[in-house]
Amino acid sequence: MKKFFRCFSHLQEVKDSHISFFRSILPSTSIETEDLSTYTSDWLKVHKGSSKLVLKPTTTDQVSEILKYCNLERLGLVPQSGNTSQVGGAVPVQNEIILSMKNLNKILDLDDIQGIVWCEAGVILENLMKFVGKKGWMIPLDLGSKGSCMIGGNVATNAGGLRYIRYGSLNGNVLGLEVVIPSGEILSDLKALRKDNTGLNLKQLFIGSEGILGVITKVALLLPPKPSSMQLAFLGCTSYEKVVKALTSAKASLGEILSAFEFIDSQTMEIILKRIPRTRYPLASPHNFYILIETSGSHSESDKEKMEHFLESAVESNLITDGVVAQDTSQSENFWRIREGGLLALRQEAVDLHQFDFSLRIPEMYNFVEVVREKVGNAGKVTAYGHVGDGNLHMYVLGDGKNNLENLIYPFLYEEIERRNGSISAEHGIGLFKQGLIGYTKSETNIKYMKAVKDVFDPRGIMNPFKIF
Amino acid sequence: MKKFFRCFSHLQEVKDSHISFFRSILPSTSIETEDLSTYTSDWLKVHKGSSKLVLKPTTTDQVSEILKYCNLERLGLVPQSGNTSQVGGAVPVQNEIILSMKNLNKILDLDDIQGIVWCEAGVILENLMKFVGKKGWMIPLDLGSKGSCMIGGNVATNAGGLRYIRYGSLNGNVLGLEVVIPSGEILSDLKALRKDNTGLNLKQLFIGSEGILGVITKVALLLPPKPSSMQLAFLGCTSYEKVVKALTSAKASLGEILSAFEFIDSQTMEIILKRIPRTRYPLASPHNFYILIETSGSHSESDKEKMEHFLESAVESNLITDGVVAQDTSQSENFWRIREGGLLALRQEAVDLHQFDFSLRIPEMYNFVEVVREKVGNAGKVTAYGHVGDGNLHMYVLGDGKNNLENLIYPFLYEEIERRNGSISAEHGIGLFKQGLIGYTKSETNIKYMKAVKDVFDPRGIMNPFKIF
């Protein structure tokens, strides 16, 4: 399924006069024109674009001036945070200007009673985690890319990640945003009140908007208290059906302390152990499926009791065949290293890697993987892991470069997801990679009104062009 | 502060020819034209409007036909669920047609693995609670009006209520909506996937939109597992400062099992005990402030231990002076009867009742009440209770009808909320009552874009006219 991007003629090329204008409103350290390769390619190195200009504003007012000018001059603009998008969401396509958020990186305030943090959009997720952690709070979001992704990008892409099953989506956790729209106007809604029913909730539109409406410059985020007790168990199952039953059982036994329910199939596990340094197989013998269960709670003793009770009953009812609870931080780290090493291992293994991020009803998720596996046959390898507790699996088709996998899997695979009422993008978004494919998940009417809403904020189509639609 | 509603001339009056059209597309049982008084006044009997026609469709397609016709003919339309709005949000002003959702009341499906219920918008909240309760789940929302309010109305007004501190807003819990917009088009997003990052999240716009964009016809809602152990404690404090400290302490000690932290001041308590039958004072002696704490968990023993530990430490550190844990259902019911009886008691007590529903930073919430109390002086009584754990208080100014309270409190009170960066409507919305006041909470730019977004969906201004703006 080759896609040819339409060449949009509504945008101007960046000229010297434009660069001169930016030099007049920004300090020289906020402008880059040489060697922009780290900005113009995504971190997977799949999408390579081009740009002549990177702007790195340090204030919201600068962002406002930049957007206003780009809007008047019809210059395309790509907001870029940590550039960790897995769908090429922050890559320029036709020499758009890159608006890097890396210099808007101040943590502004923390409300210690409600648990709310205010910060600029360019704060790196891990830095924010450490900051609030010291004060007894946690960020309700954890991602493998936490060391480089930024909170503004997380919000703009509605990032999901590992603890979604417990803390839910950013739609519930983002209490306030400051956003600059192409007119240069600033939509500021940073009061961060837990309850505020005054008119339409515009900030929700920007959560997951992938930068096509405006630029998020500040974020206010609700924080859960940092748990004082955490446990991690690695389990082995013989069938996916048992994985699903173990999920139901874990929800019932662990209730409010369940904070992750992750899944790895044996095909992925094998490649991880081969490719990722310092990973050790945690169980006595190989299994078809693995589960990683995490609990986070406030009372260590009762949490441990609950975990023991769950494990005992899961073994007794034959849902799991083997299981081990991490005894210390180093074992925990090994378990998470396995789970988080998936993508890196698969990228090293395959010459030709096709990556999918879908949502389906939980009971049929792995059946879908098996259907794809059958379709692919000997032409490639199909593996999966992910957030099974949220109905979200990451599936990969690995080729050795000798077979044309594309003809085999596209559009069959997307059609199958559509037929099963799933989503073709659970948490990675549409970006450039899945541009034009949104119709497999959303109706024509829905897409028509998405475009109409985009026109309200970005009538001249300058924001992150060539993405989503 | 008198407000005169603008007379909108863009809408047509309902004529016989219109009624004939509706008779041609709806069964006669879906049309009412006689004695519409239960529909034209809000349940507080504060706002009385008029209407010649109530339509009670039974299918989404009927809703679509109605909206399309009203849009073509420029007929104003007020969606109405349980009509329990406290801001006159569902009252017709100038003979608009009332679209009653009461016949769209089917519960459609339940996903027993993820915990998701699908239903039509007119299902009464309490009926939905009972249905999912039987299957081991709960609705992440509880309101005093649960016996008559409907889930579609709850979503359209982003209802908050008693357990918000635990389960958060409907922005996080609504997984899918079916909505009909004035063009007659149906925006259907009912897959109810926990994760789905495909384009702009339009359904979020309808949560809390108060019926000004379209009509919600179906809802998919995420359900937490029904807790197997619940506890309720009634506490007495000497100062508001101690209430805030008790909140911090409760969050730390009770962690993930804390499911309500409600507050009543002594002024409200006195009136409740006088006015509400079957309420008994739960403590040994009167206090200045009362707290109602609820926990919901999955393990009764450890939950009890946590509550005991919290209470002991709160007494030791002198945060609470007295406290009692409900020993049985009847005592629990008494405690909740006190808390939920507030509005009814105050309405009976006052000749002239002014009702406020504000959000402020938690430490200064009651100081605001005291400032208003000082301003009102002997002209009236000021009382407050509410969801202090969420930064949301319901405040009332009670008059005996002899003093002009309006001049004293308006606009001073809204100006003071604005100055303190709060919200003039935490959970009750804007509706008719606070029409034109949204500027105290939201910026001009924000309001301008709310109106632009409304124009996308309702360009002819037929949906719930005269509300919010």
From TrEMBL, chains A, B:
<dbReference type="Pfam" id="PF02913">
    <property type="entry name" value="FAD-oxidase_C"/>
</dbReference>
<protein>
    <recommendedName>
        <fullName>FAD-binding PCMH-type domain-containing protein</fullName>
    </recommendedName>
</protein>
<dbReference type="GO" id="GO:0071949">
    <property type="term" value="F:FAD binding"/>
</dbReference>
<keyword id="KW-0274">FAD</keyword>
<dbReference type="InterPro" id="IPR016167">
    <property type="entry name" value="FAD-bd_PCMH_sub1"/>
</dbReference>
<dbReference type="GO" id="GO:0016491">
    <property type="term" value="F:oxidoreductase activity"/>
</dbReference>
<dbReference type="InterPro" id="IPR016166">
    <property type="entry name" value="FAD-bd_PCMH"/>
</dbReference>
<feature type="domain" description="FAD-binding PCMH-type">
    <location>
        <begin position="47"/>
        <end position="226"/>
    </location>
</feature>
<keyword id="KW-0285">Flavoprotein</keyword>
<dbReference type="GO" id="GO:0005739">
    <property type="term" value="C:mitochondrion"/>
</dbReference>
<comment type="similarity">
    <text>Belongs to the FAD-binding oxidoreductase/transferase type 4 family.</text>
</comment>
<dbReference type="InterPro" id="IPR051264">
    <property type="entry name" value="FAD-oxidored/transferase_4"/>
</dbReference>
<keyword id="KW-0560">Oxidoreductase</keyword>
<dbReference type="InterPro" id="IPR016169">
    <property type="entry name" value="FAD-bd_PCMH_sub2"/>
</dbReference>
<dbReference type="InterPro" id="IPR016164">
    <property type="entry name" value="FAD-linked_Oxase-like_C"/>
</dbReference>
<dbReference type="InterPro" id="IPR036318">
    <property type="entry name" value="FAD-bd_PCMH-like_sf"/>
</dbReference>
<dbReference type="Pfam" id="PF01565">
    <property type="entry name" value="FAD_binding_4"/>
</dbReference>
<dbReference type="InterPro" id="IPR016171">
    <property type="entry name" value="Vanillyl_alc_oxidase_C-sub2"/>
</dbReference>
<dbReference type="InterPro" id="IPR004113">
    <property type="entry name" value="FAD-bd_oxidored_4_C"/>
</dbReference>
<dbReference type="InterPro" id="IPR006094">
    <property type="entry name" value="Oxid_FAD_bind_N"/>
</dbReference>
